[in-house]
Specification:
The structure holds 2 protein chains of 2 kinds. Chain A is built from 8 helices and no strands. By secondary structure, chain A is mainly α. Chain A has a domain of 107 residues. Chain A starts with a helix and ends with a helix. The chains are: A mainly alpha, B mainly alpha.
Chain lengths: 177, 160
């Protein structure tokens, strides 16, 4: 029984090292600057509150894609067999998505497991940086030239960046698997 | 963003309702998958939100301005990209900060790299990305996004 404890502890550390590390950081912050630690906690909670509904939406979509969309359909639309069309769809979809990128990671991984190629996933994440709904605000602070340039270049680099990620992933695969 | 979120939520709720009529069993299975995914992601996501709070308090905009303002050249470009990659927060916070950096005399390519890296590279969220996609994908994607941010920075800086 006692021999089990170290492995349980190691598993807990391995699975939850980030939450545990964050708690430790908050502990350190509370000891050194308790008011700022509280302020940080409130900002974190506020951020969570602002995207809570989006998390529900994304997870709902994960459930739908995993159960209702077949591997063949995803492969046909977003897999290697779809060719360049898959990358165009990915770039277009990336510009439409909202919220912080990390919220759609589970959804993208679920789509990848269903047959979407790595280039599609990386292209969505690259095009995601376009932030279409934020452009008016960007123009207000940084001007037309900056905003237009950034948007066009982000879109232009999205597919090459996606393909480059996929190429590097492919180099590593035979060695590791 | 809130309105768009509500529309997304409404559409997904509607999809569940329609699919329920087609197959209650499969729809229940979808809900089960959604709940299981949420339960699995929540500790990691909570940590990310916690880190966002810590970052915004302990690395305030003034500190970033003091690091980036005024300097120019390759080191400034790299610093802009690196700071953007490190900082976490919503893009609406990046734009006014970048505007004030430009006003303070920061080198435009460095500011552009800062904004692009802010949006597309995530050092704080890297562990979460690695947990979901695997470490290789997370590292490769973020490295390439960082290089792209520097390239876009240079290109925008040269035309604005």
């Amino acid at each position: 029984m006692s021999a089990r404890h170290p492995s349980k502890f190691r598993r807990l550390l391995r699975e939850h090292w980030l939450p545990l590390g964050t708690v430790l950081l908050y502990g350190w912050a509370a000891l050194t600057a308790s008011e700022r630690a509280l302020q940080a906690l409130l900002i974190g909670l506020r951020t969570f509150g602002s995207v809570a509904l989006l998390i529900v939406a994304v997870m709902g979509l994960v459930g739908l894609t995993q159960v209702w969309i077949g591997r063949e359909a995803v492969g046909r639309l977003l897999g290697h067999e779809a060719g360049f069309k898959a990358l165009l769809i990915a770039a277009f979809a990336g510009t439409l998505l909202i919220g912080p990128a990390y919220l759609i990671f589970p959804l993208l991984m679920s789509i990848h497991r269903q047959g979407a190629r790595w280039a599609v996933i990386a292209t969505v994440l690259s095009a995601y940086a376009l932030k279409l709904p934020m452009i008016p605000l960007e123009i207000e602070f940084l001007g037309w030239g900056f905003s237009l340039g950034r948007s066009l270049l982000t879109l232009l680099f999205a597919i090459p960046c996606g393909l480059a990620v996929e190429a590097v992933m492919a180099i590593g695969r035979p060695r590791s698997e | 963003m809130y309105d768009v979120t509500l529309i997304y939520l409404l559409l997904i709720g509607l999809a569940y309702l329609l699919l329920w009529r087609r197959s209650p069993k499969k729809t229940r299975q979808s809900l089960h998958v959604a709940l299981a995914s949420t339960r699995k992601m929540l500790p990691m996501l909570s940590a990310i939100f916690g880190l966002i709070g810590l970052f915004q308090v302990f690395v305030p905009p003034g500190l970033i301005e003091s690091w980036l303002g005024g300097a120019s050249g390759w080191r400034s470009l790299l610093a802009g990209g690196a700071l953007g990659a490190l900082v976490i927060g919503p893009p609406p916070a990046a734009f006014p900060l970048a505007g004030s950096l430009l006003d303070a005399g920061a080198w435009p390519p460095a500011v552009a790299a800062f904004v692009v890296a802010w949006i597309s590279v995530g050092i704080v969220t890297l562990p979460f990305e690695a947990e979901i996609f695997g470490a290789r994908f997370a590292i490769v994607r973020n490295t390439l996004a960082f290089v792209t941010a520097l390239l876009i920075g240079l290109l925008i800086g040269s035309w604005t």
